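Hi W., the flavin-adenine dinucleotide complex you wanted:
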Amino acid sequence: MDFQFTEQQRRMVAAVRDLAQGEFKANAQKYMDGTFPWENMKKLADIGVLGVSVPEQYGGLGLPVFDTALVLEEIAKTCYVTAMATLGEAGVQTRVIATYAPDTIRERILPKVVSGDCILAICMTEPHAGADVANYRTNAVIRGDEALLVKSGTGASIGCASYSRGFIEPAANFGQIGLDCCFD
Ligand SMILES: Cc1cc2nc3c(=O)[nH]c(=O)nc-3n(C[C@H](O)[C@H](O)[C@H](O)COP(=O)(O)OP(=O)(O)OC[C@H]3O[C@@H](n4cnc5c(N)ncnc54)[C@H](O)[C@@H]3O)c2cc1C
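Structure:
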């Protein structure tokens, strides 16, 4: 097995490292009070990083999870808050949409994720069942063309909730991840 980075991975890591070391490091402490790092997110969008998980047809780079981890590692070395904000855009939330959402939602949302105009949150954790996803109590009911969420538990630990324009909500009774995108 070849454990060497590809040339593309090497270039991407170098670009993110230059940005993070040069521009994020000095201000990292200022975001520890809960301020959202918009400035850093825009700079990451400018070099394409927020689209690392977004399929190419929606303006992203369409790269696998490993590449996302490489990017996050470089950001986390300098600014934890920016790395956590990027995790949703470059990783989890975006991948849920790219994998499960209908085309209409993908077309509407993913280009805005790439440009840094749409921050996404995921409302997964419930206090009684953190990692135990099989015991989540949030259900959905289907009415006509709409799936309405019935939250019978309480959400917890929703990162970036105040700054997000879209919320992804797993619904236990679908037997798979459901999606609630409250996008404007
Ligand atoms: C930095 C950070 C950001 C986060 N952001 C978000 C967010 O944006 N949105 C969101 O929804 N959540 C978020 N979370 C919450 C995260 O999803 C939960 O912390 C996670 O699900 C673990 O839950 P817990 O801490 O209650 O651990 P627990 O669920 O109590 O798990 C403790 C241990 O028990 C094990 N365990 C649990 N259930 C079972 C089982 N049924 N069988 C066997 N072993 C089991 C686990 O593997 C683990 O080792 C975030 C967490 C962190 C740390």
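The chain is about 40% helix and 10% strand.

W.
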